[in-house]
Amino acid sequence: MRFRFKQPVPLSLLRPPQVAANFRSMSQHVFVDVVACSSSFGLAFDIDGVILRGANPIGNSRRALRRLYNDSGSLKIPFLFLTNGGGIPESRRALELSDILGVKILPSQVVQGHSPFRNLLKRFENEFIVATGKGEPAVVMWEYGFKRVVSLDVYASHFSNIDPVAQYKRWTTIQESNCSKNSENIIPHGYSQKVKAAFVVSDPVDWGRDIQVLCDILTSGGIPGEKNWHQPPLYFAADDLQYQAAFPSERLGMGAFRISLESVFNRIHDRPLEFTCFGKPNPSVFRNAETILGHLLQTSCPANVRTGNDLGSPSFKTLYMIGDNPLVDIKGAQQAGYPWFSILTRTGVFRQRENHTQYPADLVVDTVEDAVEFVLKREDAS
Asked: So where does this one cross the membrane (predicted)?
């Protein structure tokens, strides 16, 4: 086990520079006296490259996570998975992780790149929207409450010759059973239904087809084949350029697809592409994670929580972000500031012996087990 800190200071004094700065700033406000008890801390784990490679546990992740549970199997220390991945509902991802890791993972412990799309329900609940990506993007949106959503696979099938090279493709897609059966009611006349928004829920499978159809939607005001200067809103669940999957070297992520789509769109349209990206390193993702961890802390460790603030939610002493990607996990934790503490593992995108130059983590370790060992010792919770 090998630790490498950003600065050689005693563990008892270890605190990221931005934490100290933000804490001094907070001291000027009335809520500074809200202090969590000594064991009020939580953890956020990236999945790909930290917990799993493909579908296989890495870095002794199974053993590491078991240390966060009581002997009875109940949650002892609040933690969640904070991933830019997705494509299936959080409830199903929780079941998959539970099976692979051998511990009970709750749906509330899974925060995926597209989880913030829930916040757009009020705006688009009854609007006609299109969702694309691997897995079941329309099912994901349907479970969030969007009532008129279809996958781009289904949508494209309503337009003859919209994909000019479809005849040369040797694969077919399995339609999403929960939503495709309703597609005839949602888009009874494909050419007349205006798409009010497009959502890239997960990494697209057919980049060429998706770029073509999305450009059709976005350059036409929502009705392919027509001309309209107004671009419907476009949302990306994340903006990772690369991520660690089962293959030894990094794979291109949703950010690479976004760059490709943007480049093509800006060449064929007189106005630049407008879009919104969610996922790490967006600070809002970390604020949301802090709220979720607070709920987990209240339900799993009620005796360890002091709720002195007006909202009655716990205040954490430290939240640990454990990730493998400096540009996403570490940058996000640094931008979020207090009380986030960043830990970088060498099991995924990051493989260097020395700390990352541009976004140095507060701690660098070999594996997620090393990270959990450090946290438990530092918090006197081992």
From this structure: none
